[in-house]
TrEMBL record:
Belongs to the cytidylate kinase family. Type 1 subfamily. Pfam families: Cytidylate_kin. It is found in: Cytoplasm. Keywords: ATP-binding, Cytoplasm, Kinase, Nucleotide-binding, Transferase. Residues 11-218 form the Cytidylate kinase domain. It catalyses: CMP + ATP = CDP + ADP; dCMP + ATP = dCDP + ADP. This is Cytidylate kinase. It comes from Neopusillimonas maritima. Its EC number is 2.7.4.25. The gene is cmk.
Length: 224
């Protein structure tokens, strides 16, 4: 029997940088036994490939060409680009800043759209990003928009970077997050906005476990 991918359940989790959506998505997916899509990783991979090939963050056409031809593998929690393990490299701040800039390009977003939708397979998918509920999976039965105040997000990101051995400055991170938020909200292509039917969860004062439980509670309430 052929399965219509549109019938595969999706929980879309969108939100700004460092709102915790990636960790929440991973844990929700683990609880449900579903696949997970870290859409931000695809943009970071594109950014890293551009940087490795000397492509400027203003070159939309070349960035889109690289996005369309990414040699990417996701395996056992590791991310490979062109046969090299780049799991740590794509999380570095310069890569994140570059990714935020090229993510505003319509040609880049279009090049990655079908790659993202291909992750939708049984038994279900938890997808995190900035336009999962508005553009990539607009018919997802549950859409979460995860927010947190910028100070809380900066502290989280600072802690994450230091735990991974990277240097981090709290005030610089806060300025960077505010700049990224502005770019994401005001871009003409797939701006960072909650879908009309999204449930907004403010995680500023919630633990990861509390946030995960809130998402799972909403999933239970819709009768899934």
């Amino acid at each position: 029997m052929t399965i219509n991918t549109q019938d595969v359940p999706v929980i879309a989790i969108d939100g700004p940088t460092a709102s915790g959506k990636g960790t929440v998505a991973q844990r929700v997916a683990q609880h449900l036994g579903w696949a997970v899509l870290d859409s931000g990783a695809l943009y970071r991979l594109t950014a890293l490939a551009c940087m490795q090939n000397g492509v400027a963050d203003s070159d939309e056409a070349e960035a889109a060409r690289i996005a369309a031809g990414l040699d990417v593998q996701f395996h056992n929690g590791a991310i490979w680009l062109g046969g090299h393990d780049v799991t740590a490299a794509i999380r570095e701040e310069p890569v994140g800043v570059f990714a935020s800039r090229i993510a505003a390009f319509g040609m880049v977003r279009q090049a990655l759209l079908e790659r993202q939708r291909a992750f939708r397979r049984l038994p279900g998918l938890v997808a995190d990003g900035r336009d999962m509920g508005t553009v990539v999976f607009p018919n997802a039965p549950l859409k979460i928009f995860l927010v947190a105040d910028v100070a809380a997000r900066a502290e989280r990101r600072c802690k994450q970077l230091k735990e991974k051995g990277f240097s981090a400055n709290l005030s610089s991170l806060m300025e960077d997050l505010q700049a990224r938020d502005e770019r994401d909200r005001t871009r003409s292509n797939a701006p960072l906005v909650p879908a009309p039917d999204a449930i907004i969860i403010d995680s500023s004062n919630l633990t990861i476990e509390e946030t995960v439980n809130a998402v799972l509670d909403h999933w239970s309430k819709i009768g899934a």
